[in-house]
Write a structure and sequence with these properties.
The chain is of the alpha+beta class. It has 2 helices and 3 strands. Helix content is about 20%, strand content about 20%.
Length: about 70
Protein backbone atom coordinates (compact mmCIF):
# COMPACT_ATOMS: atom_id res chain seq x y z
CA UNK A 1 0.00 0.00 0.00
CA UNK A 2 1.44 3.37 -0.97
CA UNK A 3 1.17 6.73 0.77
CA UNK A 4 -1.00 8.14 -2.04
CA UNK A 5 -3.43 5.20 -1.83
CA UNK A 6 -3.70 5.65 1.95
CA UNK A 7 -4.25 9.37 1.51
CA UNK A 8 -6.94 8.70 -1.09
CA UNK A 9 -8.65 6.17 1.18
CA UNK A 10 -8.62 8.73 4.02
CA UNK A 11 -10.07 11.46 1.81
CA UNK A 12 -12.87 9.11 0.71
CA UNK A 13 -14.09 8.68 4.30
CA UNK A 14 -17.14 10.71 5.39
CA UNK A 15 -16.56 13.69 7.70
CA UNK A 16 -19.35 12.54 10.01
CA UNK A 17 -19.61 8.74 9.80
CA UNK A 18 -22.95 7.13 10.61
CA UNK A 19 -23.33 4.60 13.38
CA UNK A 20 -22.20 4.28 16.95
CA UNK A 21 -19.43 1.74 16.46
CA UNK A 22 -16.38 3.15 14.68
CA UNK A 23 -14.26 0.10 15.49
CA UNK A 24 -12.50 1.54 18.56
CA UNK A 25 -12.28 -0.21 21.91
CA UNK A 26 -12.14 1.83 25.12
CA UNK A 27 -9.21 0.94 27.32
CA UNK A 28 -7.81 2.23 30.59
CA UNK A 29 -4.20 3.40 30.44
CA UNK A 30 -2.08 4.37 33.43
CA UNK A 31 -0.56 7.88 33.38
CA UNK A 32 2.90 8.29 34.92
CA UNK A 33 4.76 11.63 35.06
CA UNK A 34 8.08 11.36 33.26
CA UNK A 35 11.17 12.12 35.30
CA UNK A 36 14.32 13.84 34.16
CA UNK A 37 14.71 16.82 31.90
CA UNK A 38 11.05 17.53 31.06
CA UNK A 39 8.67 16.83 33.93
CA UNK A 40 5.69 18.14 31.91
CA UNK A 41 5.58 14.95 29.89
CA UNK A 42 3.68 11.83 30.78
CA UNK A 43 4.14 8.18 29.97
CA UNK A 44 0.91 6.29 29.25
CA UNK A 45 0.98 2.55 29.77
CA UNK A 46 -1.81 0.16 28.75
CA UNK A 47 -3.62 -1.80 31.42
CA UNK A 48 -3.42 -4.93 29.27
CA UNK A 49 -0.13 -6.62 30.07
CA UNK A 50 -0.03 -8.25 26.62
CA UNK A 51 -0.02 -4.81 24.96
CA UNK A 52 2.80 -3.74 27.25
CA UNK A 53 4.82 -6.74 26.13
CA UNK A 54 4.26 -5.53 22.56
CA UNK A 55 5.83 -2.20 23.59
CA UNK A 56 2.59 -0.21 23.42
CA UNK A 57 3.11 3.13 25.16
CA UNK A 58 2.92 6.89 24.57
CA UNK A 59 5.04 9.78 25.81
CA UNK A 60 3.18 13.08 25.48
CA UNK A 61 2.79 16.56 26.87
CA UNK A 62 -0.45 17.22 28.81
CA UNK A 63 -2.00 19.46 26.13
CA UNK A 64 -1.71 16.63 23.58
CA UNK A 65 -4.17 14.42 25.51
CA UNK A 66 -7.95 14.73 25.27
CA UNK A 67 -10.49 12.47 26.92
CA UNK A 68 -12.59 11.15 24.03
CA UNK A 69 -15.58 10.62 26.30
CA UNK A 70 -15.59 14.36 27.11
CA UNK A 71 -14.59 15.58 23.63
CA UNK A 72 -17.05 14.00 21.23
Amino acid sequence: MTWSSLEGEWEDQPDDPAGDDLGYDLDEWERIRATGVDSEKYLYLPGDEELLREEAFLVVSPEAVADLVDNR
